[in-house]
């Protein structure tokens, strides 16, 4: 991708762009692609099979897995295919980790905060953790393998809004105007002859053909609006009622919608995306079933990890567990606080990644006004408010009730909301959403539930950020004695379940090869 | 939208752009928006109610409806709400018109061609007519009202391909490269000072900020590729394996992917779109149930229409029907051949719109290789081949079998395929698709069914094109005596079911007001 000339600058530039569009995961991925980050396993994954042992006349091994989140469950699931004797220790009252779907009857507790009783109606759910899956991600393979029905998740919606600097405009309108003016500018520059030395006549013709199409330009290459912007009343028997004319180029640039309309350009966020039918926790449920719920000890907080020549010993609040190997599939900042004998480098490495605050609120409404009145079926409204996003549901369209994600924010905004009581979070989210949707946003709210991941016991963060490219990352991709580390935080898919799964697969591969090689 | 200066040119330019992106419907809509097309009813539709008569002490009327397609069924459904006595005459063996979903056990007959026996497996269906619904369309309101579950239809997929001039590239790659180079060109022009007289310093900064984001540019504003292009192997534990570097600006322009990557810019095709769960004909089924199947006489070909002072008389192959009013909801070119006493202007107007050929093939595969191997879940591959498009299914993801739309073409390409036998259509479609997907495209094909709408008896076209803005259009929006005309062809939503429904609503409104006014 990058050649010699000016590669360093180019690389940095790329990372800036990617970080903005796709978050930390995308940035690390790009670092890998550019050769700036360590490379790991990149062959196809081969699941361990029972035959791997029986054909060799060997016995499998016992493995204690710390954490029954997606990484831990995936590791247990894959190892189980070859008959490994796995035990999962989970400090929380139930498995799943950040893959958490809330429904009526659930109770949410938080550090330093009052508990919330979830009152959502029948069939209404709130994916408080991950909510969408890109089609290239291994997560979909697990959905297929585990028989979890999936459906389309609408991540980009031309009818959703962009709310920036107190102005609300439909995404389609913002896009048409920005593309229109960009096309006009470049087309007029081309017409003026300024590109004659850069481009041949044929190339200029091709460029202009594209720009006319891209910006819906007139014959003099002006942008003066386009039906792509949408309508006050869409065409029917008549031709419809157009919106007000677009602002000037200057107004459109000043509107600052550029970030919002490029949000789905990254490979992690591109259309289409997917979700399990009925809630993301179907993945947890099916993994648990496949692993065997009797193998998962909940309420078991790990207090000490000891690697030895012939095995591992894990002390936890319910006793001490011995096994041949250990997979530590906890968040690094949680793991960092557990005494161990894995060495000072591991201690230091575990303390390197920084937890990122993340929060979400689910708002249940008695009527799907966003479908009926706004004609928004799924998708995301992008804002520069502290709620950051509003997600509209991509399922059960036309149902009576429905649930919006009223904020999904990270960093300082997540800390701000996290510090509020659940009631105040809701009040603030409704006040912000009203700026976009008007008074109806505060009406007909049947229930709500919010989560501050950085205040979730034993999790303490939405995900982690590596402050810089760091050898800790590769150090922890390798086992320390008989202890392996797993989690999205050790991959280039941070904050994605696919990262947890890929990490688990890599650890399972390494562990299994070691067991097969061992005498 | 358009101001005085150069408005005529601007309008024409807009129409060229719109026609290319959105088809005839979009062009007419734009004509309406620009004041070039006649305006019709644009108020909210109020369905007739039983109380409209009982409260006035009046009787409702009898209406004979010609054609039980979506327009005819919608008219009967709405009139039925007020107790009108409707009878539908349908020449074909079943209702629905172009809203046709084929399943195993169905039989497709064509003019001048052998019949096809459809052999698709359980649960597999092929929407041979309309296949997608935009969220602003009235079609969704009918889905809600009639209790028809809907799901997302993926119309745009970054993972689908663009196949132009014998090169196949993922849509995400084509888009990243084109946007990257466009951004680079305009950013460098801006850097050179060439826009200093057009834009203020602030505006230039804002423009550059957008362009960096839009094109994923480096700090010197070069485009040298981007993770947005996709990967040979996507990031996981490692950073992934990048694709080959992008071509030069010149190569990217020459690749000709511009049309394909702007295909979803129009308001008719924008993401997201929707479909009824289980097949588009759910709309027909539910409308029929609501209307009462006993009111629909199939196999009844209309042979004469006579309007009189006190009613209408419609002769058909099964007899003669008298009613107070008639709604002629047949294609205009079919209607044009039926003797009537509605006057020469009507005859001439009905002969004005030109039928457009349209064809589709459904290819059923024993394995969803597009999901497993290509990671394409729904969406459309755009091509410059005579198949024009390939549609991947947006439903039953991960099922064993699946059905692709192997071509959906119009005009000369549809005529070409329509002239072939079903077996030759299939062979040709497979040969073309192989150019994109390789040999697997011709393997595991379990069954196929194709349709040439211009060869469907009593329909004779995919839709119509009005050769120019024409007073015939408005003439036929008004009744001729006691005969009303309805269909998508009388709206600005040609080729969409929403057009048929909107037209039916307009006619129902006019007819009902007349009945209420009549002594």
TrEMBL record, chains A, B:
Database matches in InterPro entries: Amino_oxidase (IPR002937), FAD/NAD-bd_sf (IPR036188), Flavin_monoamine_oxidase (IPR050281), TAT_signal (IPR006311)
**Where in the numbering of this chain does the Amine oxidase domain appear?**
70-507
Where are its TM segments located?
12-37
List the Gene3D superfamilies: 1.20.1440.240, 3.90.660.10, FAD/NAD(P)-binding domain
Tell me which UniProt keywords the record has, alphabetically: Membrane, Transmembrane, Transmembrane helix
Show the PROSITE patterns listed in the entry: TAT (PS51318)
Claim: Transmembrane helix is one of the keywords in the record? yes
Q: What is this protein called?
A: Flavin monoamine oxidase family protein
